[in-house]
Amino acid sequence: MEIRKPSPLKGEITVPGDKSISHRAVMFGALAKGTTEITNFLQGADCLSTIACFQKLGIGIENTPERILVHGRGLHGLTAPCDILDTGNSGTTTRLLAGILCGQKFESVLNGDASIQSRPMKRILDPLEQMGADIVSLKGNGCAPLRINGNRFCQSCTPYSMQELSELPGAVLSGIHYNSPVASAQVKSCVLLAGMYADSPTSVTEPQLSRNHTELMLSGFGADIRTEGLTATILPDPDLHGMQIEVPGDISSAAYFIAAALMVPGSEILIKNVGVNPTRDGILRVVRDMGGEVALLDQKTSGGEPTADLLVTYRELHGTEIGGDIIPTLIDELPVLAVLACTAKGTTVIRDAQELKVKESDRIAVMAQNLAAMGARVTATDDGMIIEGGHPLNGAVIDSHKDHRVAMSFAIAALAAQGDTRILDADCVNISYPDFYETLRRLCAGAIE
Ligand code: S3P
User: Fold this and answer.
1) pTM score
2) Is 448 part of any domain?
């Protein structure tokens, strides 16, 4: 993929459905009684991994371009898979599904690609073990593959017959109160989902508030789930009922075009129907803080999730400080914000973002290396980056490390650079945004080959 400087970006675009919400809609629909209809589902590789896993768990799922139909079988309706569950590149599939599988009465193995096999799973193993789950990292390194023995009865020593075992209600876990050391929606959701199979309420307190899509959507499906400050609590054995879900556009995908319009002088674009949940909208707060203009038009709420059309108008930006409680609300947008900071005047400091090191790649190291290759003045720190903005960027060869957000961030950086930029493994954008280059091409005619 080769990209060069464009003329101003003008026009109206839509972005694909939210990745986090798409995953959850399939998962919760599978555990509900009746059919769940999902529109604007993200047809990216990560969400397709979730669909494939639930199909292996006995759930009928019809995937058409207009809608997804999930024929849920209730909380105890999943059936034993006859194969390893392949979660691909998806941390959300791996961690949320692990929580669900700990409550089943069959054994299962979760595994994914090389990136998934190096991402930390101890963060879910710890609370799940506290709940009494039998889950192990098969290589003993705290990573996938994970084996989950939902049944907790060894078949050779159990006093029960196979018939009696099949009639047991599922693995009964113990409800816990978990103080999570990380603000991670994947950890929080994993524990809350396991909590549906527990003998008493389960709650999770996090150090800062992470995205709350699980809490909002599970409550819509009929679960008794409450949030007080930084603590979310779920009552066990909910009766979940199928529902209709319209997935809002993904603000994490909109982020690339927000940044592009704020980098290319004279640009003005309208991004329709974007999810602006306050646990996800940190990017809007930061770009405004940098002097950018983003107006929220036609604000609505659908399934508890606020949405708006975003009108983004080019402005000259200045550097800023990004740290503290805002970090979980923009964690996936930090790579493209780092790019934006290179084009803003003055210094931008990103701190408290050590979680970037355990994403699809080490996003602190990979962003700093590639930005430096373009001539940016960037220092990688232990928990973020320091960027001296306002210096010209040059085209370069970018190693995306097969990380979709790195590839898309550098496609945007290329728009501000002198000379051509080449992105290696550029097709990894399929993970979250299969049409990314088409949309970029449409907005920046002539800039992409
Ligand atoms: C996600 C949570 C975040 C985010 C990821 C999606 C989710 O991860 O980075 O892309 O859907 O819950 P963490 O929970 O690890 O912060």
Assistant:
1) 0.95
2) no
